[in-house]
Amino acid sequence: MAPQRNAVLPTALKTPAVQKLTNKRVILASASPRRKEILQTLGLAPEIVPSTFAEDLPISSFEDIHEYPVSTATQKAVEVYQRLLDDPPDLVIGADTVVFTHALPSTSIEMETGVRQELLEKPSSKEDNMRMLMDLNGSVCEVVTGVSLVYPILSAPGYEIKSIDERTLVFFGDNPDHLLKAYVDSEEGLDRAGGFAVQGRGNLLICKIDGDFYNVMGFPGASFFKLLEILVEEDEDFLAI
């Protein structure tokens, strides 16, 4: 007999979606300690099975750049789900968070001006981190997280995929150069997309956040649970296979 699994913590709110997850095998296809921490804070402790997907999709192939993190999240979740078919999970959660420069008021402006937001990867060096922060200083960036859920169904290919993207605007203060340099020298931003950590000392550079704070950390918990609630309401077979 397979061991009993339960990702639901005693602290979780007793909603229909959470009750549906009780005694289910839930996988987080990510090694991110921040995503794990956010889910635990909200009452879930999934198994951690990091995806081996290369995360090398060409962003130029996406007409809407917001589809980029969603596609990456989907690839991560599907890779892990297929790898675990010998002991199939009930739900795999994939996520990918990216940072874009200078969020535009609307896509129509992008179409009219030809301006395209730039994807900010993790800085390659302290010099690169400083360049990123100087570009963001006194400006705004957009943090987008794609979340994809993969779960079993009876029809081919044997699993269903449901995805969302969450967008949050991060406004940087007009910070003096010495503060930017001090932050870069701390090296906190070297392993973070965009070169800053909102939940750490990078918070000193930011004057306002418009949207989900957890999304900037790497996982939009509220939207994730809303998606679960929708699936529970609309699909009576969700997590019933």
From TrEMBL:
Pfam name, any one: Maf
Domain of life: Eukaryota
Single Gene Ontology MF annotation: nucleoside triphosphate diphosphatase activity
InterPro entries reported for this sequence: ITPase-like_fam (IPR029001), Maf-like (IPR003697)
Cofactor(s) recorded in Swiss-Prot or TrEMBL: a divalent metal cation
Keywords: Hydrolase
Protein name according to UniProt: Maf Ham1
UniProt-listed PANTHER family: BIFUNCTIONAL DTTP/UTP PYROPHOSPHATASE/METHYLTRANSFERASE PROTEIN-RELATED, BIFUNCTIONAL DTTP_UTP PYROPHOSPHATASE_METHYLTRANSFERASE PROTEIN-RELATED
